Amino acid sequence: RHCTDIICCVIFIVVILGYIALGVVAWVHGDPRKVIYPTDSYGQFCGQRDTLNENKTILFYFNILKCASPVVLINLQCPTTQLCVSKCPDRFATYIDVQASYRYRPDQWNYFRQFCKPGFNNPRKSVAQVLRDEDCPSMIIPSRPFLKRCFPDFSTKNGVLTVANQTTFKDGRGKTRNVTDLREAANGINNVLDARSVGMKIFEDYAISWYWILIGLFIAMMLSLLFLVLLRFTAGVLFWIFIFGVIGIIGYGIWHCYWEYDHLKGIPGSDLTVYDIGFQTDFKVYLQLRQTWLAFMIILCGVEVIIMLMLIFLRNRIRIAIALLKEGSRAIGYIMSTLFYPIVTFLLIAICISYWAVTAVFLATSGEPVYKVMANQTLCKYANLTCDPETFNTTNVTKLCPGAQCTFAFYGGESLYHKYIFIFQLANAFVFLWLVNFAIALGQCTLAGAFASYYWAYRKPADIPLWPLFSSFGRAIRYHTGSLAFGALILAIVQLIRVILEYLDHKLKGTQNSFTRFLLCCLKCCFWCLEKFLKFINRNAYIMIAIYGKNFCTSAKEAFFLLMRNVVRVAVLDKVTDFLLFLGKILVAGGVGVLAFFFFTQRIPVFAQEVPMLNYYWVPLLTVIIGSYLVAHGFFSVYAMCVDTLFLCFCEDLERNDGSTAKPYFMSASLHRILGKKKLSPKKA
């Protein structure tokens, strides 16, 4: 063994040090409070400790009617003064009425002025000047906090939209408005915050159901471990049970969909289509439609037919793959520690994701408050230009653009650091992809080295080295960090290009240029195929690195040509094995998913009282299903790596040895019989 791809190793270490430096710089300049707290028109945080706004946690809009402007969707800022308040208004009132009665009803003035600019207490100032300078809002309406912002307290009475049981209100400028105007204004902001609303409800569901989610994932882990233990002894029987189990689960799904479809027959509204009701945040609405269950049933029937056809045409190859899995299960039986290595990979990836996310947030919140002119007039030439709130009222902007305000827009700056924030974000994403791919490569090379030590042991298990997994991990880190980093770098570059293409596709989605859309679609398809191909090559290159200790390019070339010389065996054994393992993942995820469905829909009488009250029962259900699949994938990936390694070792064994006494095969007798050799030379005692 000797160190491989040293230059790439050095570059990799330098990049990691630079990544740490980038994180430190971002942490120095960034402020995550800019994401956590709402920000008023002065760039101050609502609810921030040790400030004047410590007890003012809610954002109040002076004139929420202006939030119906398209500016809200363009700049994500409502073109009106925004103030931090301790509570939302609970009554209708206008500044004109309050000013007229402040002498004999000072309590009304004292209540109203808490929604004025801090320090303003001059009820004698003319109404025109107050509204011009936006010292106070022209009106307040009963509101309640939503996502730490004051929104009108809407309710429905006899099918009519009301606010505090009123259908009209005074806007403080001499007009009587309908509350539907408030709804349109609130929708202007809600279009931006709807996703946050759903996110908050999902967060609440996680907060009260996390315990049961963990139980579901624990059950998935135990089922996966049980599957792996039983696979060593009853691979054939167990896999056929799993295959028919998947068929049975899908069959039950088809029957359940048909039952729901038939049960909804004749119920008013059930014959509506998904197109008729549009997008709904309450997904239970879709389950009341016959069309939804019909679509589910058709999809499940198609999946069932595909699985049945594959089983019919691949039955002989499946038997061969099962025999190879038995050999793999025997190898894992001797090296049981490999089952828990995916936990190491998971922890490394979790660290990478956490560091990337924190750095991205700090980079995004770097900079000082930037203020821009917000004007209702579309012809105002100063609109969206930067301004200084301290001197704004002394400029000519307010005269040329009546009603214009100098309001907080975003955080930024003019320094060299702030000019390259976008470049830093790209670098953050690129190094993140590189590190994640390196963690995966390290896991693959480590497992390959452990299983290769099993295969090339002449007398099994006597010649298997002590602690093969730890020895393989040490070799990968000590000698092959550069090679693993090289393979991860190539894959990270392709993945970054794919991310950029997805970003461009999102930005150009509304374009009418058909050629541009076609070209972008072709590029996305090509780079997707390239990424899949590189993953396949890298995986086998890491196996060759673990076996022979050569550099990445040499290992990749030798692995590729070795596989090409055995392409039929690759298709028959490797891919059928992947398919069978995928069926195992589906069975684990499907079984736990069905159990979770019955639990969260209160269909298990024993646990009916234990089920938490949820906004969306599908939130923990999908989490359990996806989490169970990932848990099963983590354990089954060890088997997949084992089979790939044994297969590559077998191909190499056939080419280097001939079964003679001088060059005996290293494969086991059972694997030798499975893959076509009639006679195995006796091994020395």
From TrEMBL:
<feature type="transmembrane region" description="Helical">
    <location>
        <begin position="210"/>
        <end position="230"/>
    </location>
</feature>
<keyword id="KW-0812">Transmembrane</keyword>
<feature type="transmembrane region" description="Helical">
    <location>
        <begin position="431"/>
        <end position="458"/>
    </location>
</feature>
<comment type="function">
    <text>Choline transporter.</text>
</comment>
<keyword id="KW-0050">Antiport</keyword>
<keyword id="KW-1133">Transmembrane helix</keyword>
<feature type="transmembrane region" description="Helical">
    <location>
        <begin position="621"/>
        <end position="641"/>
    </location>
</feature>
<dbReference type="Pfam" id="PF04515">
    <property type="entry name" value="Choline_transpo"/>
</dbReference>
<dbReference type="InterPro" id="IPR007603">
    <property type="entry name" value="Choline_transptr-like"/>
</dbReference>
<keyword id="KW-0325">Glycoprotein</keyword>
<protein>
    <recommendedName>
        <fullName>Choline transporter-like protein</fullName>
    </recommendedName>
</protein>
<dbReference type="GO" id="GO:0005886">
    <property type="term" value="C:plasma membrane"/>
</dbReference>
<feature type="transmembrane region" description="Helical">
    <location>
        <begin position="334"/>
        <end position="358"/>
    </location>
</feature>
<feature type="transmembrane region" description="Helical">
    <location>
        <begin position="7"/>
        <end position="28"/>
    </location>
</feature>
<feature type="transmembrane region" description="Helical">
    <location>
        <begin position="237"/>
        <end position="255"/>
    </location>
</feature>
<keyword id="KW-1003">Cell membrane</keyword>
<feature type="transmembrane region" description="Helical">
    <location>
        <begin position="479"/>
        <end position="501"/>
    </location>
</feature>
<feature type="transmembrane region" description="Helical">
    <location>
        <begin position="293"/>
        <end position="314"/>
    </location>
</feature>
<keyword id="KW-0813">Transport</keyword>
<comment type="similarity">
    <text>Belongs to the CTL (choline transporter-like) family.</text>
</comment>
<dbReference type="GO" id="GO:0015297">
    <property type="term" value="F:antiporter activity"/>
</dbReference>
<keyword id="KW-0472">Membrane</keyword>
<comment type="function">
    <text>Choline/H+ antiporter.</text>
</comment>
<feature type="transmembrane region" description="Helical">
    <location>
        <begin position="579"/>
        <end position="600"/>
    </location>
</feature>
